[in-house]
TrEMBL record:
Domain (DUF6310): residue spans on this chain: 176-302
Taxon lineage: Bacteria, Pseudomonadati, Myxococcota, Myxococcia, Myxococcales
Signal peptide: 1-17
Keyword tags: Signal
Protein name: DUF6310 domain-containing protein
Region (Disordered) residue spans: 149-188
Keyword Transport: no
Keyword Metal-binding among UniProt keywords: no
Origin superkingdom: Bacteria
């Protein structure tokens, strides 16, 4: 929207604001994190990319710029107070929806989900990045009006239920279980200067830190899929060109180190995967150690 449209939006928000005093909300020290958590409860057609791009702006600006990316088949708006309808008299329904959604606090029942909502991929990845950067939930969790108590949330089935539910609570930020500080992933520069190796590592699907290694339990791992909690090691051997002797001896030399890396990852609660460039290399490693079956992955991206 242009500057004039944004000015009109601010007028709508003024009209939407409730005249009665609201309970004092907790101080939000990280508006970007608060916006991401608030948006995580909504369905997005673009996997949340617009939200992530605009999350540093005030919430009304984010709504203004990303409202078109909402999955409108899974969400509808009610105006129980009538204030947004009055403020936007003669405007299209989209104007009322923006007014309701951009209000400082959402009135219970004003936003209704008509289908199951899973946190958008881009938003989840941004929340994961905040978690690793040391931002804690108390630094930025907004409070949205909901009739669901925290106790009830802890007992709720993990599968969301569709149809007519009121505005859902903000999904809780992931909570790391207590563990040694050495198990907290740390972003560190790539070791060495092997461009092919680094490229293959950076392109691991859903890699949380492309361009970096990840230090966990004293080991530089090549990649981390934080959402799945999987640490990766990448092998870029051109295995198919090796002599028969090398095809036998190289896997035997690599297996002990892969076992050690797997144990380091598991000790910190992570799963472990090894990426190789050849199906023959995969088969040779699994033959050398059958326990690696399911751990070795042929990298079709490298």
């Amino acid at each position: 929207m242009g500057l004039r449209a944004y000015a009109a939006l601010l007028l709508l928000l003024s009209a939407c604001a409730a005249p009665t005093p609201r309970p004092k909300a907790p101080v939000i020290r990280n508006p970007r994190l608060a916006n991401l958590q608030r948006a995580a409860a909504l369905p997005w057609k673009d996997e949340g990319r617009c939200v992530v791009q605009e999350a540093s702006h005030p919430w009304p600006v984010l709504v203004d710029r990303c409202f078109h990316s909402l999955d409108h088949e899974k969400v509808r708006f009610r105006d129980p107070t009538g204030r947004c309808a009055v403020a936007s008299a003669g405007a299209a329904a989209v104007g009322i929806g923006v007014c309701i959604l951009a209000a400082p606090e959402i009135v219970v029942g004003a936003v209704i989900l008509t289908g199951a909502v899973v946190i958008a991929v881009a938003i989840q990845e941004a929340l994961d990045a905040h978690e690793l950067s040391g931002v804690r939930p108390e630094d930025g969790r907004p409070v949205l009006p909901t009739e669901t108590s925290a106790a009830a949330l802890s007992k709720r089935s993990p599968k969301p239920k569709p149809s007519g539910q009121n505005w859902p609570p903000v999904p809780p930020a992931p909570v790391e279980r207590e563990r040694s500080p050495k198990c907290t992933p740390q972003r560190v520069p790539h070791l060495g200067g092997d461009e092919l190796h680094n490229t293959c590592a950076d392109r691991v699907p859903q890699n949380s830190f492309p361009g970096w290694d990840v230090l966990v339990n004293g080991k530089h791992f090549d990649a981390l899929q934080l959402r799945a909690r999987v640490l990766w090691e990448v092998k870029t051997d051109n295995f198919d060109t090796y002599s028969i002797y090398l095809q036998r001896t190289v896997p035997e030399q690599q297996v002990p180190e892969l076992r050690r890396e797997r144990d380091l990852a598991r000790a910190c609660g992570f799963d472990f995967r090894v990426g190789v460039r050849s199906a023959a290399h995969k088969a040779a490693l699994e033959l050398a150690d059958p326990d690696l079956d399911g751990v070795i992955i042929v990298m079709d991206w490298c």
